[in-house]
Amino acid sequence: MREAVDCELELMLVLSPERSVPVPARLSYLTDDPYAVHIAFHIGSEAPVHWTFARELLVEGACRPCGYGDVRIWPTRVGDRGVICVALASPDGDALLEMDSAAVAAWTERTLMAVPPGTESARLGLDDALARLLSPLPADDLWLTDPWSTDEAPDGEL
């Protein structure tokens, strides 16, 4: 059964050390895509901007700096509040976003309750799919039988 864990929140897009602007966003986690988290940024365009990355990256990034390349995450403090910084890089540009630590931690905890760590692969149904793929079909019986099941040699052979 597919379950969604969603959270609407306001992120801060850091433009400079002195200036940030709010960006409405939606965090989404789908139990049938158990390794990934999805963020949709509503930036005033026709369609939101979507990013997908590993849930593990967000879980680890809430505690210590992690990530390489396109997505990097680390915890910090801004004034008296805890934030999680998310640095995104793409061919279209780079962005530094700040998310409220408490809101992200609460949402992440809900995803971990929906699909506990270490149980993700069971949600993908890989074992069942592999068993179906490898199970013999009725027509396979023709290929699995010995055409010379008697001791006699086929015609023309000694």
Can you summarize this structure?
This protein is α+β, with helices and mostly antiparallel strands. The protein is built from 5 helices and 7 strands, in the order ββββαβββαααα. The mean pLDDT is 87.
Report on the structure:
This protein starts with a strand and ends in a 14-residue tail after the last helix. Strand 3 and strand 4 (49-54) form a beta hairpin. 25% of the residues lie in helices and 40% in strands. It has helices at residues 55-61, 101-114, 120-124, 126-134, 140-144, and strands at 4-16, 19-30, 36-41, 49-54, 71-78, 81-90, 93-100. Strands 4-3-2-1-7-6-5 form a 7-stranded antiparallel beta sheet, sandwiched between helices. The model has no long low-confidence stretch (mean pLDDT 87). It is an alpha+beta fold.
Shape: elongated
- The largest beta-sheet arranges its strands as 4-3-2-1-7-6-5
Specify the helix fraction band.
25-40%
Order of helices and strands: EEEEHEEEHHHH
Total helical segments: 5
Per DSSP E runs of 2 or more residues, the count of β-strands stands at 7
Q: Please report which band the strand proportion falls in: under 5%, 5-15%, 15-25%, 25-35%, 35-45% or over 45%.
A: 35-45%
Largest sheet: 7 strands, antiparallel
Q: What structural class results from the helix and strand content? A: alpha+beta
Low-pLDDT runs: none
Instruction: Please state the average pLDDT score.
Output: 87
In angstroms, what is the radius of gyration?
26 Å
Between the first and last Cα atoms, what is the distance in angstroms? 62 Å
